Amino acid sequence: MTLQLGVLVSGTGSNLQAIIDAIEKGELDAKIRLVLSNRPDAYGLVRAKKAGLPTLALAHNEFSSREKFDEKLVKSLKEAGVQWVALAGFMRVLTPVFLTAFADKIINIHPSLLPAFPGVNAQKQAFDYGVKVTGCTVHFVDQGVDTGPIILQGSVAVKESDSLEDLRARILKKEHQLFVEALSEISRGHVSVLERRVSVLRAT
């Protein structure tokens, strides 16, 4: 099935670009219906406009509550025909208003091997802890912070010579590949969830 995607961004939008590129190459069966940001100056919006995609900026600080902001997000996405939501560096915690509207249809990419190092600055958390292996996780979004059922994970070795920025860059490269892979498996109908366990039926 063709995923009718809404992509939410707060920053540079490099994961958004990976999704755009994969669609253009025929590697991902999806149509981006709307790219939405809570930051009007987010470079992700520039990427979307360059690709000819519809965009919308909604500054979260102009709303009286998180719930009111999420109500507007939901309305805008639904009006655009969005059925699945990809959080591509969206730095807001979603309320039940949003989670209910797109139940089991919200996907996030996190730069650690969850459940290790949830929340912000996950790469720095892992680097400071001195782990030998870290990576990234694509997961469904639930009401916790980075606690939803895990779809795919990709590992990244930590080298002794790494700076924090070296590690960030390698994790980000892995994110681009893994996010597209997860969305592609969903579009093929290969992903199912039973309680917390996600099955991904890949072709052998």
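Next protein, fold it too.
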Amino acid sequence: MKITVILCTYNRCQRLAKALQSVAQSRVPESIEWNVLVVDNNSKDQTRQVVEDFAQRYPGRFAYFFEGHPGKSYALNSGISEAKADIFAFMDDDVEVDPHWLDNLTKVLVDGAWSGAGGRILPEAGFTPPAWLNVNERYALAPLAVFDHGSEAGQLKEAPFGTNMAYRKEVFAKYGGFRTDFGPQPGASIQHNEDSEFGSRLLARGERFWYQPSAVVYHCVSTERLQKAYFLKWWYDKVRADMRQDGVPAASLYVAGVPSYFLRRFALWSLRWLCSFGSAQRFSCKLHVWRNLGMIRECRRIALSSAKDARQPAPLSH
């Protein structure tokens, strides 16, 4: 049994070194062969030198691969094609993993009873949520890549987050790779859902995932992410990505291609935002306003695109 950790990176060589140092300390049974494949997605910093230094310090443990096509999904798919393993685990360049992370995340996949697994993603030590954020709401910390379903292991009925997930190799042969129209890439208006779309695709086909809370990674929380503007933009883009993934919801009435209840919810949350008190309550309402704006915009984009396609002349038959 062989496991490959796939880590895609772009211009974060200092953070990358910390991530690699943490995974180098992994405690995995000697019967398991494992390595780390770092996919450099066209970095312009010292990424290659950092990886090659680790490859020299830990012979056979680290490998470098270059993917010049910009876009995380391209890097992920290249890593999957390059790796020679039975199980693929995924981590990002801005996390540090627990020494038992890799073993705890992947051991449930060995016998084939489960197709995928996800673990907990927690903020790095010393993190304090801002006072304006209502942390009691579900997915309140999702913009910080926090994924925590508690300490009880069991079946996972939603897609895990990309920085702490693992899949058996055969699911990629069966269902394809990550969609390249999703995920971080230069110039893209939407930079989400490459991981959740893939996981949701498998769940929709009946594949089973396991949640392993003892597989823990600690995610770096940068200062720029702890800003209201970041949270607003993240949710605005996230709901648009969700709609591109799942399509426009069914409705009994549409206004210019937008389900009428989206407009009602936008008006309701706008009123609540204006009338609410307390920074956390006001910002929670504002987030709902931005989410509805994102859904309305994406509905309009899809409607206009469909109308444009309908106006295109049919190809001539011979």
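About the second fold: The first strand starts at residue 2 and ends at 9.
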